Amino acid sequence: MNLLPAGVYGFTYSPALVSAPLWAQRRYRGYETHKLSDGEIVVIGFTDPETAAKIESAPGEQTILIQPEPDPTASVLVQVPYSRIRHHRQYAAPNEHGFTVVVGNR
């Protein structure tokens, strides 16, 4: 993502890695990732309502679980800027039950 021009998006199995490979077409449990026109990179996913509220307003660092697709426990669409990511496991996650990441304040 860091080498791509602003305004592009794609899908990856390695969310939160700035050098993650992107595919133009959605793949099974791939995470949608955008590089916005201002250069900010965001990962798009689903979480529960409580976690979505934490992402928007909780002070300090929060550990959150993001799913690449909606399910009964993760039905709220969220976007997490890479600039807020403080810690994550660096691995490909096509068969994992979500992606756990620590996010900080804006």
What does this structure look like?
There is one protein chain. The chain has 106 residues and is mainly β. It has one domain (8-103). The chain is 8% helix and 35% strand. The chain has 1 helix and 7 strands. The protein has one helix spanning 49-57; strands at residues 8-12, 31-35, 41-47, 62-66, 76-81, 85-88, 99-103. The strands form 2 sheets. The chain has a 4-stranded antiparallel β-sheet. Strands 4-7-6 form a 3-stranded antiparallel β-sheet, with helices on one face. Strand 2 and strand 3 (41-47) form a beta hairpin. The longest helix is centred in the middle third of the chain and has 9 residues, at 49-57. The protein is globular. The two termini are 21 Å apart.
Q: Would you spell out the secondary-structure blueprint of this structure?
A:
Elements: E1 8-12, E2 31-35, E3 41-47, H1 49-57, E4 62-66, E5 76-81, E6 85-88, E7 99-103
Antiparallel strand pairs: 1-2, 2-3, 3-5, 4-7, 6-7
Beta strands, count? 7
Quaternary organisation = single chain
**Radius of gyration from CA coordinates:** 13 Å
Shape: globular
Strand order of the largest sheet: 1-2-3-5
Largest sheet data: 4 strands, antiparallel
Strand residues, percent? 25-35%
Determine the fraction of residues in helical runs and give it as a percent range.
Answer: under 10%
**What's the N-to-C terminus distance?**
21 Å
- Average pLDDT level: 85
Q: Residue ranges: pLDDT <50 for 5 or more in a row? A: none
Q: How do the helices and strands follow one another from N- to C-terminus?
A: EEEHEEEE
- The number of helical segments is 1
Structural category is: mainly beta
Count of spatially separate domains: 1
